[in-house]
């Protein structure tokens, strides 16, 4: 296959991209830079246009300036404000729009038709709603009423999380969108699924002869999934205080990562087959039967004043736009079981939190120890084998194995076979949003969440939220800059395990004195 042929396969068909919420943070930090990277890599040819839509008045020149600055600041490709960039920016237009006004959508349609003619775009339209979910319904309906969906090509709706607040509100939201778009036209973003190493999980599992045979309860002792963040809630206190860690990360990113680890091999590498397997995992999650079960298996915490690297950090309740008596959790950890043949009895420990000591996303698969009656196990204290998948910010994989200490007759020590993808020169992994925009424009929905995944994830999470609502005790406290409530460590210790240190974690932070 020639390089040109590869590029043709990768190239998006001509389309107009509508960015609703074009003056917002997501557009600035992620979407404009993503479009530019796709263009630079030839994945977007000349037959495209972008219309930024927001309420605020903005001239075309001002908008293109915004796009330029966002690329300068956030894109992995830098640009000069030169002829080449100006040619790219010509494809961008702005439309100030009140999303409740259908006439505005008619004007938008006229503007779109003109761009489609100019750039020979065959009527393909991708609507990216970087907006609060409350607005998804009215935007969808006005897109239809304003004639925006009557063009010749395909129409796709790309939407951001949070998709609802619980199952009921998610159903209502889905209902509104489905009045206008078919399920296969809806692309629900979970940006974790766009991360290079999350997608790599599938390849590592299914393309290597030595993992798949071991990938089950006979050989795996437990799986630890950590999504830790050093940041607090920044300027998102208003949203976050309503959502909390469970809804912000737990319902979506964490369960999605778990499905990638736990799913069965799909029968074909097609989006629906892969998503079928993921939804089966979600259906196999053991639901917590009652509030007591939730208490036994789930830890929620909220950060209080603390410090990190010599810097004082405020308590969550003192953050901007947060209720000073808030009981919202900023830390969530759960012991989860996937009740199927492959995973019966294997605990999955999942945790996330704000204001933890390091920013990292990692999966640690801990293998069962060697049987003690084998001579090595009797003679030495062997560490278990680990497979660690580093997702972010470091990308890589390492396998921890036991080997003889060189020159010694009696010592065995764990050593790491480390593949550090981010250390490789010349590797400039695409950003999650780049992949996802690219996939949506090519009609590949593999790494987007289907409605049944969203609904099943909510059913699991709703039981936890419900139990917390009834619990007068509120979240446990942890100092900002620490690893969260100690109860999370105890939960693993009950099963005879401990958290393995994640990348960047000081060894002495770790609780080692656990009997195994
Ligand atoms: C978002 C959450 O979905 O993911 C944020 O709303 C969180 O609260 C972010 O900070 C983390 O994403 P990443 O890619 O930086 O790990």
UniProtKB/TrEMBL annotation:
The keyword Zinc is annotated on this UniProt entry: no
User: Quick one: which residues bind NADP(+)?
Assistant: 21-28, 55, 98-99, 161
Per UniProt, residues of the Glucose-6-phosphate dehydrogenase NAD-binding domain are: 19-200
Asked if the keyword Glycoprotein belongs to this entry, the reply reads: no
Q: Which residues carry out catalysis?
A: 253 (proton acceptor)
What is one cellular component GO term in this UniProt entry? Answer: cytosol
Q: Where is the Glucose-6-phosphate dehydrogenase C-terminal domain?
A: 203-500
UniProt-listed InterPro entries:
G6P_DH, G6P_DH_AS, G6P_DH_C, G6P_DH_NAD-bd, NAD(P)-bd_dom_sf
Instruction: Give the record's keywords alphabetically.
Output: Carbohydrate metabolism, Glucose metabolism, NADP, Oxidoreductase
User: Coiled-coil ranges per the record?
Assistant: none
Q: Which GO terms describe its biological process?
A: glucose metabolic process; pentose-phosphate shunt, oxidative branch
GO terms for molecular function, please?
A: glucose-6-phosphate dehydrogenase activity; NADP binding
Q: Which residues hold substrate?
A: 191, 195, 229, 248, 354, 359
Kindly tell me the pathway this chain contributes to. Carbohydrate degradation; pentose phosphate pathway; D-ribulose 5-phosphate from D-glucose 6-phosphate (oxidative stage): step 1/3
Catalytic activities: D-glucose 6-phosphate + NADP(+) = 6-phospho-D-glucono-1,5-lactone + NADPH + H(+)
Question: What EC number(s) does its UniProt record assign?
Answer: 1.1.1.49
Stated role: Catalyzes the oxidation of glucose 6-phosphate to 6-phosphogluconolactone.
PANTHER family given for it?
GLUCOSE-6-PHOSPHATE 1-DEHYDROGENASE, GLUCOSE-6-PHOSPHATE 1-DEHYDROGENASE G6PD
**According to its UniProt record, which protein family does this protein belong to?**
Belongs to the glucose-6-phosphate dehydrogenase family.
Indicate what this protein is called per its UniProt record.
Answer: Glucose-6-phosphate 1-dehydrogenase
Organism for this UniProt entry: Paenibacillus albilobatus
């Amino acid at each position: 296959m020639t390089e040109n042929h590869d590029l043709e396969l990768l190239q998006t068909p001509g389309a107009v991209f509508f960015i609703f919420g074009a003056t917002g943070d997501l557009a600035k930090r992620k979407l404009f830079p993503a479009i530019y990277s796709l263009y630079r890599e030839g994945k977007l040819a000349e037959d495209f246009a972008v219309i930024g839509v927001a309420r605020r008045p903005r001239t075309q020149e001002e908008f293109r300036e915004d796009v330029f600055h966002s690329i300068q600041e956030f894109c992995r490709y830098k640009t000069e404000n030169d002829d080449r960039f100006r040619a790219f920016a010509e494809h961008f237009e702005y439309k100030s729009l009140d999303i409740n006004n259908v006439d505005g959508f008619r004007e938008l349609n006229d503007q779109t038709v003109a761009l489609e003619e100019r750039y020979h775009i065959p009527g393909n339209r991708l609507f990216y709603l970087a907006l609060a979910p409350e607005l998804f319904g009215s935007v969808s309906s006005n897109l239809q009423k304003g004639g925006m969906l009557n063009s010749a090509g395909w129409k796709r709706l790309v939407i951001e999380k949070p998709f609802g607040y619980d199952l009921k509100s998610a159903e209502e939201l889905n209902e509104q969108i489905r009045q206008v778009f078919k399920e296969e036209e809806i692309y629900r973003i979970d940006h974790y699924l766009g991360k290079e190493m999350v997608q790599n999980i599938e390849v590592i599992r299914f393309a290597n002869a030595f993992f798949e045979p071991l990938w089950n309860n006979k050989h795996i002792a437990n799986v630890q999934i950590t999504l830790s963040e050093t940041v607090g809630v920044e300027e998102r206190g208003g949203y976050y205080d309503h959502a909390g860690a469970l809804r912000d990360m737990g319902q979506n990113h964490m369960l999605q990562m778990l499905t990638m680890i736990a799913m069965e091999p799909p029968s074909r590498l097609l989006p629906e087959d892969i998503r079928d397997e993921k939804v089966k995992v979600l259906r196999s999650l053991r639901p917590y039967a009652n509030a007591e079960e939730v208490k036994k298996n789930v830890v929620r915490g909220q950060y209080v004043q603390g410090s990190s690297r010599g810097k004082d950090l405020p308590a969550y309740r003192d953050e901007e736009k947060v209720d000073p008596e808030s009981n919202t959790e900023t830390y969530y950890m759960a012991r989860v079981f996937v009740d199927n043949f492959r995973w019966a009895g294997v605990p999955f420990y999942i945790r996330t939190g704000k204001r933890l000591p390091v920013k990292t996303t990692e999966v640690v698969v801990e293998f069962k120890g060697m049987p003690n009656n084998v001579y090595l196990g009797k003679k030495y204290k062997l560490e278990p084998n680990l497979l660690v998948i580093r997702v972010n910010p470091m990308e890589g994989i390492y396998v921890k194995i036991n080997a003889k200490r060189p020159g010694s007759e009696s010592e065995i020590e764990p050593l790491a076979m480390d593949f550090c993808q981010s250390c490789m020169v010349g590797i400039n992994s695409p950003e999650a949003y780049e992949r996802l925009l690219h996939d949506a424009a090519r009609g590949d929905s593999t790494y987007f969440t289907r409605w049944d995944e969203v609904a099943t994830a909510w059913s699991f999470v709703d039981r936890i939220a419900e139990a917390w609502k009834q619990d007068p005790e509120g979240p446990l406290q942890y100092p900002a800059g620490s690893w969260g409530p100690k109860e999370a460590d105890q939960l693993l210790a009950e099963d005879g395990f401990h958290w393995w240190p994640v990348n960047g974690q000081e060894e002495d932070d770790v609780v080692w004195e656990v009997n195994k």
